[in-house]
Amino acid sequence: MANMLGALIGAAIDRGDGDSGIKGAIMGTVAESAIRLLAPVVATYALGWAVQYGVAKG
User: Fold this and answer.
1) In contact, 26 and 10? CB cutoff 8 Å
2) In whole angstroms, what is the distance from residue 6 CA to residue 17 CA?
C-alpha cells in the first residue's frame, strides 16, 4: 500500500505513451522505494557537508 502512489503515477505515465501501464507501474514502485531509501542518506550527507563547510569558513 505504501508504494501505491508510485505505481499509479508510473502506470499513468506509461499509458500516456500508449502502453498497458504495467511496466510503468513496476518502474514507479521501484523508483518510489529507491527515493524512500536514499532520501535520508542524501539529507544526512548534505547536512554533514554544510557543517564541515561552516567550520572550515569559521
Assistant:
1) yes
2) 17
